[in-house]
Amino acid sequence: MCGIIGAISYRNIVGILLDGLRRLQYRGYDSSGLAVMDLTGELIRLRRLGGVQNLINAVENTVLSGSIGIAHTRWATHGKPAEINAHPHISFDISIVHNGIIENYQSIYRQLKVWGYTCLSETDTEVVAHLVHWEGQKGGSLLEVVQRVLPCLRGTYGMVILDSRMPDRLIAARSGSPLVIGCGIDENFIGSDPIALLPMTRRLIYLEEGDVAQITSSSIMIFDRSGNSVHRCEITSNIQHDAGNKGAYNHYMQKEIYEQPRVIKKRLKGHLRNNKINFPELGSENEILLKNLQHIQIVACGTSYNAGMVAKYWFESFIQVPCDVDIASEFRYRQPVVRHNSFLITLSQSGETADTLAALRLSKKMSYLGSLAICNVPSSSLVRESDLVLMTQAGSEIGVASTKSFTTQLTVLLMLLAKISYLKGMKPEIEKSIVDALKVLPYRINQMLLQNELMVDLAKDFIHKENVLFLGRGAQYPIAMEGALKLKEISYIHAEAYAAGELKHGPLALIDNNMPVIVIAPDNKLLEKIKSNIEEVRARGGLLYVFTNAQFGCSNIERMRIISLPYVEDITTPISYIVPLQLLSYHIALLKGNNVDQPRNLAKSVTVE
Ligand code: AGP
Question: What is the whole-number distance in angstroms between the Cα of residue 402 and the centre of ligand 1?
């Protein structure tokens, strides 16, 4: 995780570094720092604990100005969030910012101690600065020194190095953590994400795995892992980045929840015609892959995993295509067996989640028919490395808690379901019922958003609770999982989701008169089953909150509150029912005074394993 920006220019780059860090904060916000060669030729390092604003405030109290520098915003992996652990790390003239994890840092540290170095931080990064310094004493340019050091490192890195004795160049190295060069006129930039560079340039060069680059204000040289000079294509990015503006909303998460009807409508536009789903972006030549698949393997993490779980219910029950869903960090190490004619689908908002990317790369060595990424960030590694891509087009999602990326992933998955159904020559009614439900989905979500005041009121019941159970059945079980995840991550209340039928196999022991149980119970073929589960909780004194559009014969009875929701089509129920749960978590977090957009210990994009 963490975010990196480096700049070398003819102009003052301090503001560029700080603005870049502000844009990169979604990758981590424990602490931040920069190192800049000032106009007198002195290297100035400033670091601050907490969000980037603390660093901006610190810089404002100085007259710092310089034309070469590196900067970093951190999500702690090794070493607690503290100023001493913030990047850049320095060893004499060498400064470094690093994303990733150096797995063998302890053995390097032992060797450095023998050579007389002392590490001041608890990080895995500082050893690299010392190693570069040690190796530099043997001679050679900074580029050559870094090329000699890299084979000693195990793990992942995207790093940028500045030597204050050679303030005309930056050296960047990539292995397992992305870096992109921004090309300017008499100035160049490097960042872990193009969004940090877009205010300066749209001309981008992505480094490939193993690449090392030397960047000056007027030249860019790139070498592959073997040290050969290589050419990497320059692209002109058309990425739109609207991160800066919360509009009329108090938080990004709130804005993103309310954007859902609009972004879904936009995603559907032009794709629903004559009761059919058109996916021109897939290319007709690839349709044969989808037609032939006999099994789907979904891999994802967190909220994206929960979307995959919903899709499993859909694929199996509507088109009888067997589907397995794996958490990416499990998939990559469990030696999965590839089923006959299996097709891999990765789901990711960011497209940079380390485990999901690793799973995709692993799958390429296996016998999958192909891979499809359903993703929100067009410039991401996942998009660039997948065979087929369907963008969710949700627009920038800044709040750490995923909301619109989840519902747009589900929308795209439903469109895909309809497409596969058509390609496989299944009953036209399946495709028609999906198209009909999708057409009214933005309206249905709007109706759910009208429940906001109800959620404000409900939130009061939860602020002093320490545990909450979520129950669902069928495709609502993953919605219970997603509801619980939303509550945990922004309200810090422990929440667990269970398939309601599992209750009596253990969790029922948790029920007492202080345990709130949120039940997702839309009016569908499983309603009577879930009503029985509700009775099991009631009989043991549990505190029930039932989200439903069914008639329960009462609005509220003792210890059971019915949250009456508007009608939704059966197939799109999971998409609609998550919306009130997102609102509920948002209001609980708000009442608890938590940082809704940047909850503690988390980052938006998880680029380390
Ligand atoms: C959910 O609210 C989280 N922020 C998190 O679980 C997220 O979904 C997960 O890290 C996966 O991210 P991705 O979709 O960018 O791959």
Answer: 6
Ligand 1 test: best mutation among 303, 353, 380, most atoms within 8 Å of CB?
A: 303
Q: What is the DSSP letter of 125?
A: S
Instruction: Give phi and psi for 52, each to the nearest 5.
Output: -60, -30
The answer to whether 64 and 45 are in contact (CB under 8 A) is no
Which of 7, 18, 12 minimizes the C-alpha distance to 65? 12
Whether 323 sits among the annotated catalytic residues: the reply is: no
Model pLDDT for residues 26-41, shown as the tens digit of each residue:
777 899 999 999 989 9
Beta pairing class for 371-375 and 323-327 = unpaired
Nearest by Cα to 591 from 515, 496, 492: 492
Mean pLDDT of the chain: 94
19: CB partners within 8 A, 6+ apart: 199
Strand ranges across the sheet with 66-74: 43-49, 31-38, 66-74, 3-8, 188-191, 180-183, 203-206, 235-236
Tokens in use for 304? 């994206």
HEC letters along 283-297: CHHHHHHHHHCCEEE
pLDDT of residue 554: 64
Which phi and psi angles does 15 have, rounded to 5°? Answer: -65, -35
Residue 555: per-residue pLDDT: 61
- The length of the chain in residues reads 609
Instruction: Give the CA distances from residue 461 to residues 515, 543, 544, 545, in Å, rounded to whole numbers and listed in that order.
Output: 11, 10, 11, 10
Q: Which amino acid is at 551?
A: Q
What is the separation of C-alpha 96 from the centre of its chain, rounded to a whole number of angstroms?
25
Ligand 1 atom showing the smallest separation from residue 353 Cα: 16
**Measured in angstroms, how far is the CA atom of residue 495 from the centroid of ligand 1?**
17
The answer to whether the beta carbons of residues 208 and 178 sit under 8 Å apart is: no
- Residue 500 and residue 526: Cα distance in Å, rounded? 11
Report the nearest atom of ligand 1 relative to the CA of 302.
Answer: 6
Instruction: Note if 604 is an active site residue.
Output: yes
Residue numbers of the chain with a pLDDT score lower than 70: 240-245, 553-556
**Residue 91 DSSP code:** E
Please identify which of the residues 2, 119, 301, 323 carries the catalytic annotation: 2
Ligand 1 centroid – CA 287 distance (Å)? 29
Q: How many CB atoms lie within 10 A of CB 556?
A: 12
Binding pocket residue ranges, ligand 1, CB within 6 Å: 301-304, 348-350, 353, 356, 400-402, 485, 489, 605-606
Output the CA torsion sign for 552, 554, 558, 563: positive
For a pocket test of ligand 1, which of 350, 403, 586 has the largest count of ligand atoms closer than 8 A to its C-beta? Answer: 350
Cα of 590 from ligand 1 centre, angstroms: 21
Copy the structure tokens of residue 276. Answer: 């059919």
Q: What digits encode the pLDDT tens for the residues 450-483?
A: 999 999 999 999 999 999 999 999 999 999 999 9
- All domains of the chain, ordered by start, with CATH? 3-236 (3.60.20.10), 243-426 (3.40.50.10490), 451-597 (3.40.50.10490)
Strands of 401-466, DSSP E: none
Q: How far is the CA of 604 from the centre of ligand 1 (A)?
A: 7
Q: Does the pTM of the predicted model rise above 0.70?
A: yes
